[in-house]
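Subject — a protein and its fold
Encoding — discrete vocabulary of local shapes:
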Amino acid sequence: MSHHTEVRGGPPPLPYRWTILGVATFTQAASCFFVQGIGAMAVPLQNALDLSTAQLGLLLSASQLAPLVGLLVAGELLDRYGERWVVGIGAGVVAAGLLAGSTAQGYASLLVVLLVVGAGYSAIQPGGSKSVAAWFEPARLGFAMGVRQAGLPLGGAVAVAVLPVVAAASGWRVAVLVGGLVALTGAVAFTALYRRPPGTVAKRPAALGPVAAGPVAAGPVAAGPVAAGPVAAPLMDRLRLLREPAMTKALLSGTAMVSVHSGIGVLGALYLHDVTALGTGAAGAVLVAAQMAGMLGRIGLAAWSDRSRAGRYRPVLASMVGAATALVALATPLGGHPLAAAVLFAWLGFFGIGWYGPWVAHLAEAAPPGRTGFALGLVMAVNQVAVILAPPALGLLRDATGGYTAAWSALAVATAGTAAATARSGKRRGSTTSRPGRPRPGPGTDAAADAAADAGASRAGGTATR
């Protein structure tokens, strides 16, 4: 790695920010590789383990159970200790769980493996987002965040192309082993290459200052025991973040759209196999196209959010409308035609997976000063409820009705309703911007704190963050 010299607090060297973006994207793709491929392995897994659609959905939910708490813990650790080791260790836990899971004996063992994987993955999502936010200024934040979030559909596209073939040829345990090796490369890469932006130093726990609803305290009072850091802050004070308008919109839209993404994962391969009569290879190709469309969506929609005069939330609204349109079409006879289904899944991938790029940029920008990591972890943790419940619920709908119309229709209604509700909310408040009037920290600053918070901590005798 090349070395750079800089003035403390000055702008970061432009070339290395792209290295940070690349390694964050790669680690995201490597860590989610196996989980994103489970849906595409539906037919081999059902044949090998004699699973119902609901049981298959539970496999997807198992990897999302630990993040209910893990995302909150990870967000707290990120704000206290930074991204390098938190993300690196999290990716290492994913790798270790999958490598051990390659010896799993059956369905129950695989569920336990995925619980461990979910615990490790809790650090990847908020940590990778925070690392990118630390290196990019507002004018490029949406694009950079979209590229980083494209790691998930990129990993999913490769997994959909590779894992079903491996599982069919060598068994599902070998597919788990491959997933573990891929995750291990991501852990090593992030730990080896990630660096803080120039002009920042690692925070000690005592340097974080008080977390309160009001402004940061200054003077001798803030230097006393009250400034013990976020661990001492009451839980209810933190949960009040969810009442802020931008956070509420992020929470509602995130819940709807993660359910759509879950629907693609748990029902996509089965739908293409059962309804359109596509073979395993052709169905896999359609899902690869959907994941690639999602990757393009995460980049393109996030780049749009950088230039949208209506704010970063406008592309999220467009994504909900686009996804609902595709879901309605899939619920009609049109979705039964192979070519039409392929086009609809690509469309659904662009919006139903691509939404996350502008969404996470909106969320990072809306986070209160000094609480980026915790805010990301909090909203993502609440959204985990939908991530956990949606796959088995959609599987049960499919099993109970013997078809897919009810599942697609339920997702369409929920998504369209959320779009309408959050759009009206934005109009009532007169703006859809994330946090009007609040400047984002520039490049070379820790994205978890802005200049005001740092100035207050510095005046109080705390450790400076830059």
